[in-house]
């Protein structure tokens, strides 16, 4: 395993820990406020965190593997992410 991949993996892990901490903090705030309107507002803010972390961690992972995977596979990965985000927004 080369040094670039190890640092990319570390950054991905740290971002996922950050994301999980934000989610747990949001749940704690919802419980503390005990108010549906505030909970909905907090939940709406979380809607930005999830896709952002997904895109950034995938970008870090792909950049760490850029020498090992083809450009077509990179395009397919980011197309899949885009479709996931579009699917979450469709009602």
Automatic annotation (TrEMBL):
It comes from Ureibacillus terrenus. Pfam families: DUF2619. InterPro entries: Uncharacterised_YqhV. This is DUF2619 domain-containing protein. The chain crosses the membrane at residues 12-33, 45-65, 71-90. Keywords: Membrane, Transmembrane, Transmembrane helix.
